[in-house]
Amino acid sequence: MHIIVGGCGRVGAELAERLSDEGHDVVVIDTSEEAFTKIGTTFNGESVVGDLTDKAILSRAGVERADALAAVTPSDNANLMAVQIAGRLFGVPHTVARLFNPQREASYRKMGVRYVSETSMIVASIRNDVQPDSLPVHLAGSDDDVAVVEVTVTAVGRGVSVAEVERDGDARVAKVMRGTNSRVPRQDDRFLTDDVVVCAVRRAGMRRLRELLAGDA
User: What is the pTM of this model?
Assistant: First the structure.
């Protein structure tokens, strides 16, 4: 895959290095050439100095053929603008923006922007842990075989049952969000279009899960 990483801070540098180690074609963009020194010596990709929201800079990074773009600069506005330019103007199929201000999450969801909010993740984890009857919240690391993921059901997945998702033993459905309501489903429950399904899934089962519920290979 050809992947563009916008921002070469601690997160961007580690992301770029790991993706490169996995064999992807990676290009990192940052406004400071000095920032690229954060990337480890195993990095086998390219670096471009410039503004992530500049269409000419994105073109230099190969956005026309990119499979994915991750905008992880320190600026929420720059990250949002970059993923919108990449997705809407250049048709990049997979984009994600780093989000620092959790108050903007609702607007990001309405716009259909995929994002990662570290603040919300940390707050939710701490809030959970201070409850007397809580169970630990686990987030998958890069070396874990199991991850907790969300899948939005498309027309392809309408009518699929929880039992079908769990049939091969690679996935377990933890929660289904339908509109403003959330619940733990039964085995015979069937999904509707636009349901958000939260699953624990082995990495080997990721493709099947996407194909089954979203029609996305």
Answer: 0.66
